[in-house]
Amino acid sequence: MSTKQVHKELSAMSIDAIWYELQIMQQELKSRLFDHGLFEVVNEQNLFYPFKEKTIMIHVKEELIDVERALQKFENGTFGICEETGTPIALDKLAIIPTARTIHDFAFQELYEKKSLPHLYLNHQSHYEVGEYH
After folding, report:
1. pLDDT by residue (tens digit) across 18-44?
2. Nearest residue to 80 (alpha-carbon basis) of 3, 29, 13, 19
3. 70, 99 in Cβ contact below 8 A?
């Protein structure tokens, strides 16, 4: 098997794994919303229903919309294509954020990866100190 064939096979496996992960995410998010809906009906009379829980449910709904959009892109053959530039998004990046819509969705991750990480080093008095890794 040539290197090209191996890469193509790995890409197909990665795409399948991403699709499967999106399916699982969709089921979990729908289940969470369904469970929340049942709970909200039972507690409808409670005027002190936690604001925090309502805020979380808004984020769950938004995430479900993103997941369903990504699954729709699988169906119409546009998954992994940047909506702004039309360029392909790397599979390794999509494996991290499968709901990404543009190459700019990874800006925070790239900034985080470039950040110097503090590490411990032994100073002359045999004490550990925090320092910047250079």
Report:
1. 999 999 999 999 999 888 765 554 455
2. 19
3. yes
> Does pTM surpass 0.85?
no
Rounded-to-integer distance, Cα 84 and Cα 22, Å: 22
The residue whose two tokens read 């990874």 is 106
The half-sphere exposure of 123 on its side-chain side, counting CA atoms within 13 A, is 6
Tokens 């809906």 — which residue?
A: 37
Record the tokens describing residue 61, joined without a space.
Answer: 């709904």
Alpha-carbon span 95 to 79, nearest angstrom = 12
Question: What tokens were used for 86?
Answer: 């039309």
- Token reading at 31: 């289940």
The neighbour count for residue 121, using CB atoms within 10 Å, is 10
- Structural contact between residues 106 and 113, judged by C-beta atoms closer than 8 angstroms: no
DSSP at 104: G
pLDDT at 45 exceeding the cut of 90:
no
